[in-house]
Design brief:
about 120 residues, 2 helices, 8 strands
Length: about 120
């Protein structure tokens, strides 16, 4: 399901975790999705962001943790789906399907402030 997990750096400072999927490969019927913490050597450059990919930022409130999944970042999908449905109802939002989403973008400070047991080498 997950194609690649990388860290995006801005001026050598880690900013975002990028979780890339193949289109239509996210199991939206699941309650949660656990993503392995990326290695600091798996980097993502500004040039890697493509305009033709649909990305979704994961908010801090949508992050979860489980003690039996150390070094993973959990995403609570029902909350993400509610937010997507709200976004799609806004007047100027382009039409898209959940299956069109190809990557999640997670702010590293959200992960760190949520006390996740993740790779400390961010």
């Amino acid at each position: 399901m997950i194609e690649r997990t990388s860290i995006y750096y801005d001026c050598s400072v880690p900013k975002w975790i990028i979780v890339k999927f193949q289109r239509g490969r996210i199991d939206w019927s699941a309650t949660s999705l656990f993503v392995p913490s990326p290695s600091p050597t798996c980097t993502y450059a500004y040039e890697d962001f493509l305009d033709d990919q649909i990305s979704l930022t994961i908010e801090q409130a949508e992050l979860i943790t489980r003690y039996d999944k150390p070094n993973h970042i959990g995403i609570y999908l029902p909350m993400v789906k509610r937010r997507i449905n709200k976004i799609r109802g806004e007047k100027y939002t382009p039409s898209f399907l959940m299956t069109d989403i190809e990557q999640f973008i997670i702010c590293i400070t959200d992960v760190m402030s949520a006390n996740f047991n993740t790779n400390p080498n961010f």
